[in-house]
Write a structure and sequence with these properties.
Blueprint lengths: L1 H18 L22 E6 L4 E6 L5 E6 L5 E3 L4 E4 L4 E11 L2 E2 L4 E7 L7 H8 L3 E6 L7 E4 L9 E2 L14 E5 L3 E5 L6 E3 L15 E3 L10 E3 L1 E5 L4 E6 L7 E2 L3 H4 L2 E8 L3 E8 L2 E8 L37 E5 L5 E2 L3 E5 L2 E5 L10 E5 L12 E9 L3 E9 L6 E10 L2 E10 L3 H4 L10 E5 L8 E11 L4
Parallel strand pairs: 14-19
Antiparallel strand pairs: 1-2, 2-5, 3-4, 3-6, 6-7, 6-8, 9-12, 9-22, 10-11, 10-22, 12-13, 13-16, 14-15, 17-18, 18-20, 20-21, 21-22, 23-24, 23-27, 25-26, 26-33, 27-32, 28-31, 28-33, 29-30, 29-32
């Protein structure tokens, strides 16, 4: 009997050992448990009609590790990963494979070719030129119309000009004109002067201790007319304007503008305003341009004249919006049928929304933070601030602050143009009103903060943070 039990126990031990080492447990593994590249089946396919490249591993039981060239480069472990390319060219990739035991020792290398550059500049050309030609000037009345900052930024961190601050220099009467046939012209204005950085020596001025203005047109083969080129900076997700060497501009910030072509990033553009960032060695200069007359004054209170509470201060009545950690979504397709929510996460006070699906119209991508315990008093003025970061420029955001039934309304900003990166949005001395903010003063109970991303493209990543709602607190 003892021998029979011993034999049964031994057989069970052998069966358990065999079960623990079945192929189901070690899919894709070789003798040492690591996957190999032998016999790997995969495809890299280019849709030449859309420039979308799909990377797919067809061998089961393992996962891919793609390392893909481009601007920007991409790394992914997604099987079926897709990347869209703007510019034609031949790009390289590598593929490793992995399983629960680790990653293959070697890698597969290959290339693929995108045949056509595909980027639609029509919207920018319409804003830049009115589909004919358009004249622009520095928006001297606006705070920050000239500014600078470190490389790789939007150029505001180091200095920004106050309204009319450089009136003594030869810049505010300068005009630049763009045409839809890629013609650029520069006019130095009535004074004939061009404003230059103190370090610029290629126009014949040496040892200048301060910035200076000089009659630059016609000197040293400078150009007042040239052909400009629109481009796309894929790494920063912005369009660009490139001018040839020696082409004059309202501000010459570095000799490199005279010795080689130079490029401005288009941070923002519409039919009235344009913000450009000029990338120069060691510095970024930022310019705000306007077309036509300055806008008429409004009754809006200047947010720069407000004492802003800190995000976590008791004076921030809306501070709990920064810790609620949840959002309510309503997304729809082009026919207004509700679809799946976007991908969402919350960490350290930042709400991150990733648009998995494009939307076609306003109010088709509603994202709201609700039930943070804030109610607003009728007849009381409030200041509002928040930061919205997007991974690409988006012109049709709508920010609405209202009660749970969408009225009364404290803020309705529609549409709001967002540039890639951080956008600090502020409204001062606003009253809760009936009728989308245009009617009578009204109390608003249980306020929500809504950001609508209707018309967004798939892949738009939006981050919302630093929400401040305070009673109006002027300096």
């Amino acid at each position: 009997m003892k021998n029979i039990l011993k034999n049964i126990a031994g057989a069970l031990m052998m069966m358990l050992a065999f079960a623990a080492c079945t192929s189901d447990e070690f899919d894709g593994a070789n003798e040492n448990g690591l996957p190999t590249l032998e016999g790997i089946d995969y495809t890299v396919s280019v849709d030449q009609n859309t420039n979308v490249v799909t990377f797919k591993l067809n061998t089961p039981g393992i996962y891919p590790i793609w390392n893909i060239e481009g601007s920007p480069a991409a790394k992914s472990t997604v099987n079926g990963f897709q990347k869209k390319y703007i510019f034609k060219g031949t790009y390289g990739y590598t593929l490793k494979v992995g399983n629960k035991n680790g990653v293959s020792d070697g890698q597969i290398s290959g290339t693929f070719t995108v045949d056509t550059t595909r980027y639609d500049f029509s919207k920018t050309i319409a804003a830049l030129t009115d589909n004919s030609k358009k004249e622009w000037r520095i928006y001297a009345a606006a705070k920050g119309h000239l500014a600078c900052g470190p490389e790789g930024t939007e150029g505001t961190a180091w200095w920004s000009a106050g309204p009319q601050e450089k009136a003594a220099e030869g810049i505010y009467d300068d005009r630049i004109t763009f045409s839809n046939t890629n013609d650029y012209t520069y006019d130095a204005g009535a004074d004939g002067l061009t404003f230059c950085n103190k370090g610029v020596t290629t126009l014949g001025v040496t040892g200048a201790g301060v910035d200076y203005s000089i009659q630059a047109a016609g000197r040293f083969d400078t150009k007042t007319s040239a052909k400009y080129a629109l481009g796309y900076d894929d790494a920063n997700k912005v369009e660009t304007i490139t001018l040839p060497a020696k082409t004059l501009f309202p501000y010459i910030g570095h000799d490199s503008q005279m010795t080689g072509e130079y490029t401005c990033r288009i941070l923002k553009i519409d039919s009235k305003y344009m913000e450009l960032a000029l990338d120069l060695p060691g510095i970024v200069w930022r310019f705000t341009f306007i077309n036509g007359e300055d806008p008429a004054p409004t009754n809006d209170f200047d947010p720069d004249k407000v004492n802003w509470a800190g995000v976590s201060d008791a004076l921030n009545l809306g501070k709990d919006f920064n810790t609620a950690g949840k959002m309510v979504f309503w997304w729809s397709d082009a026919g207004w049928a509700q679809i799946a929510d976007p991908t969402f996460s919350f960490e350290n006070g930042v709400y991150t929304i990733t648009a998995d699906n494009a939307t076609a119209a306003r109010w088709q991508a509603q994202c709201s933070i609700q039930h943070a315990g804030l109610s607003l008093e009728a007849g009381e003025a409030y200041d509002v601030s928040m930061t919205i970061n997007v991974n690409q420029a988006f012109e049709n955001a709508c920010i609405k602050i209202c009660d749970q039934s969408d009225n009364p309304v404290l803020v309705l900003s529609d549409p709001t143009s967002l540039r890639a990166g951080d956008n600090v949005l502020r409204w001062a001395k606003r009253y809760p009103k009936d009728g989308d903010g245009k009617g009578n003063d009204a109390a608003a109970a249980d306020v929500k903060v809504m950001i609508d991303l209707g018309t967004c493209p798939a892949g738009l990543v939006t981050k919302v943070s630093n929400i401040i709602i305070q009673k109006h607190n002027p300096k």
